[in-house]
Automatic annotation (TrEMBL):
UniProt membrane topology term: Multi-pass membrane protein
SUPFAM superfamilies named in the record: MFS general substrate transporter
Transmembrane segments: 7-26, 46-65, 86-109, 115-134, 183-202
Full protein name: MFS general substrate transporter
């Protein structure tokens, strides 16, 4: 499905790049924060802003989930197509390139305060969690019984790209220096974020060309027709 389904391919690339970026941080923090003479304990504590970003992103989804549940309770859940799962991500995903861009500007070392890069890593942590949450949720909604294969492709790309980052992060930051290396990652992040908007606006037509999603839609129509049949009979009998 990674090779044949554009939804799985491009959203998995986004999720994989986002995860690779987090693992790149584990490598790049050594080059960036050595400029402030961080100790080993300081390096460990530098991971806390990422955790803060995850927690903030987790709670940021509550209003959207509550609104969707309210629609389901009022029998308007049929209006919630799979693309509705990407709505909040349209906004939060922008924090990924913004966080990297800000990190690039303030990673040049003293006299800039050392807290500046840490503040931007909060934004990157928020985007990373939101990307994982929303893309998996969207694939489950779009592919139904095939969701295990779709999300398996997502998991493969995340693990593969995150593993590859250990090979290039060190040479990248040594050759280009922290600021230029972060600018390069910023450009890549802008590119991989574009599919979120494409699938949100054009997802229905893209899914219509997918044999997996098309089959699920046909099965759903059949189930709905069977459920509506007895209701019409009961009304006429009354």
């Amino acid at each position: 499905m990674v090779l044949t389904e554009p939804i799985v391919l491009f959203l998995s690339l986004l999720s994989g790049f986002s995860d690779a970026l987090i693992f790149s941080f584990l490598e790049s923090f050594g080059y960036v924060f050595n400029q402030w003479n961080f100790s080993k304990t300081d390096f460990g504590l530098a991971m806390i802003p990422l955790l803060i970003g995850y927690v903030l992103a987790y709670f940021s989804f509550f209003p959207t989930i509550s609104r969707h549940n309210k629609l389901r309770r009022t029998n308007r859940g049929d209006k919630l197509n799979p693309e509705s799962r990407l709505w909040w991500l349209l906004y939060v995903v922008t924090l990924l390139p913004l966080g990297i861009l800000g990190f690039a500007f303030v990673s040049a070392g003293p006299p800039l305060p050392r807290i500046a890069p840490l503040m931007f890593s909060v934004l990157i942590g928020m985007a990373n969690y939101a990307i994982y949450f929303a893309t998996i949720d969207y694939m489950v909604a779009a592919y139904g019984e095939y969701a295990a294969s779709a999300t398996g492709g997502n998991g493969f790309m995340r693990d593969f790209l995150a593993g590859m980052c250990a090979l290039y992060t060190g040479p990248l930051y040594k050759k280009l220096k922290p600021k230029k290396a972060s600018f390069l990652l910023f450009g890549m992040s802008v590119i991989v974020c574009v599919p979120v908007y494409v699938f949100y606006w054009f997802g229905p037509s893209i899914r219509a060309k997918s044999k997996f999603a098309k089959k699920l839609a046909e099965e759903k129509e059949v189930r709905n027709a069977k459920q509506e049949g007895p209701k019409r009979v009961d009304i006429s009998a009354a």
